[in-house]
Specification:
single chain; 240 residues; alpha/beta; Rossmann fold; DNA polymerase, domain 1; 7-stranded mixed beta sheet; two-stranded antiparallel ribbon; 11 helices; nucleotidase activity
């Protein structure tokens, strides 16, 4: 079976710990709602229009419907319309990504202080994820990326919050769930990870879909903070 995690040139110092971190990307490691998400929406709507030869309004409705149902518009386009998934990912993220990424101060320094090996786990495409990490200056902090391109299991794509995805990742990492920390802005992803025994850190972002409906820290969340910097400075992150 192909590897879920694509390795990166890893320069983060090794720590005497077996802890593994899985970091979401958008609205977790950077504020995608600042400018990136609006560009993705525009680019993805254009990709739906181009792929299916439909107008803007219909494409917008399909994009939103498939994202809500499958966790990724690409899956709906592939399942229901036979669109090539990798080609669609390229079309839907075809914009000047670095131009819209908001800089996160001291992020590389803070990441290197946290014990444990770190990976990025995102429902976004691999190429987009690498560009964001490079723009933020933090690519060297991560040992690899698991992006939606790699989430092909048992003949279909299984993005977060798929239990099959999480179980397959744990198997590939050869790490007990209790030693793995998932860092996310999306609560349903954390809830699925907690069912398997992972530790869960919630980065609250007011513009994450459905986040406004939750007040306080759910029982399946181990720590809830309002920024990635706050998490990385916490005792939760710095303990071995």
């Amino acid at each position: 079976m192909p590897r879920l995690i694509q390795p990166l040139p890893y320069k983060n110092p090794l720590h005497n710990t077996q802890k593994v971190w899985l970091f979401d990307l958008d609205n977790t490691l950077h504020d995608a709602s600042h400018a990136v998400f609006s560009q993705i929406d525009k680019s993805m709507t254009r990709a739906v229009m181009q792929s299916l030869h439909i107008d803007y309004n219909e494409a917008t409705q399909l994009r939103q419907r498939y994202w809500e149902r499958y966790g990724a518009t690409m899956i709906g386009m592939h399942r229901h319309h036979g669109v090539d998934p990798l080609e669609f990912l390229h079309l839907s993220h075809d914009f000047d990504i670095p131009k819209y990424v908001k800089h996160e101060p001291r992020l590389a320094y803070l990441l290197t202080r946290v014990p444990g090996i770190k990976y990025v786990l995102t429902n976004a495409p691999y190429g987009y994820a690498r560009q964001v990490l490079q723009t933020l200056g933090i690519e060297h902090c991560f040992a690899g990326i698991c992006a939606i391109d790699q989430m092909y299991l048992r003949g279909d794509y299984h993005p977060k919050p798929s239990t099959l995805l999480f179980k397959s990742l744990l198997h590939e990492l050869q790490t007990p769930a209790r030693q793995v920390v998932l860092v996310e802005d999306t609560l349903k992803n954390l809830k699925a990870a907690k069912r398997l025994g992972m530790q869960c850190a919630h980065i609250y972002h007011p513009h994450t879909p459905f986040s406004a409906t939750y007040d306080g820290r759910p029982g399946y969340v181990d720590i809830r903070v309002h920024s990635i910097q706050a998490l990385l400075l916490s005792d939760f992150a710095l303990s071995r």
